[in-house]
Amino acid sequence: MTLYIQPYPHRHMLSRWMVTQDGCPEHFLSVNVRDEEDAYTLTALIPGLKSEDVNIQVLDDVVRIEGEYKTSDGDHLLRELPDGKFRRALRLPVAMDAEKAEAKIKDGMLTLRLPKAESARPKQIKIAAK
Question: What's this model's pTM, rounded to 2 decimal places?
Fold first, then answer.
């Protein structure tokens, strides 16, 4: 009996890879970013990873996410799950308050809340009546 497996035909659109300077392939992490009134909320799928497998850095208006999926040994009939290193650096429109940033991983979803810096938040100025 012969088993033929047809991978998802548009898989190349779902998984993006790039080659680093040392010649190793690296996964380009896909993210969603929401702009809320006082913070940015970033979400990304990172299946099978724990908090110690992911490194997040925030500096002014740039957030950098890096990590590595463990590579599984052995032959595969079909291989679509990510493996190897990944990274993503995003420059957001305003500076963030890195001290108040919060990150959590739940059910393979990374959620990162990045509060905007006080200087970047809109201020309402009241007009004094004369």
Answer: 0.70
Partners of residue 35 on adjacent β-strands: 40
> Where are the chain's structural domains?
16-72+80-118
DSSP string computed for the chain: --------TTHHHH--EEE-TTS-EEEE--EEEEE-SSEEEEEEE-TT--GGGEEEEEETTEEEEEEEEPPPPS--S---S--EEEEEEEE-SS-B-GGG-EEEEETTEEEEEEEBPGGGS----PPPP-
Give the separation between CA 27 and CA 71, rounded to whole angstroms: 13
> CA-CA distance, 24 to 20, in Å (whole number)?
6
Query: Tens digit of pLDDT for each residue in 43-88?
Result: 999 988 899 999 999 988 899 999 988 877 778 888 877 788 888 9
- What is the CATH architecture assignment of 16-72+80-118? Sandwich (2.60)
